[in-house]
Amino acid sequence: MKIAVITDDGKTISRHFGRARYYQVIEVKNGEVIDSEMRDKVGHSEFAHREHRHSDSVKGSGMDPASHSKHTRMAETISDCSALICGGMGKGAYQSMETVGVKPIVTKIESIDEAIDAYLKGDLKDHIEMLH
Length: 132
Known about the structure:
alpha/beta, Nucleotidyltransferase, domain 5, five-stranded mixed beta sheet
């Protein structure tokens, strides 16, 4: 099983899914971490040449079809992962990850190691109230 974590430094969880530069991908076998690799993530800078506008409707940020397309591109790099741990994201990104089969989890934990440990113990709470 592989778990992706949003990061800018490989140690801490980024607070903003869209602006983070990397995915730290953790591979787990029999409940133990066996590998870890940093992967580049398509982000807001990748789409800088395009008009950037999240749909901030009552439903939440990034719920329009154009945003879904961007979120799907962001997920391509982690298509082999079953979960995505982040410190914050829009409702549209959250929904897009679910659509492509990656379970998003929004956490208050800052350390990647601590979040992975909590995830493996089944103790990582998904703070959906932090979605925007």
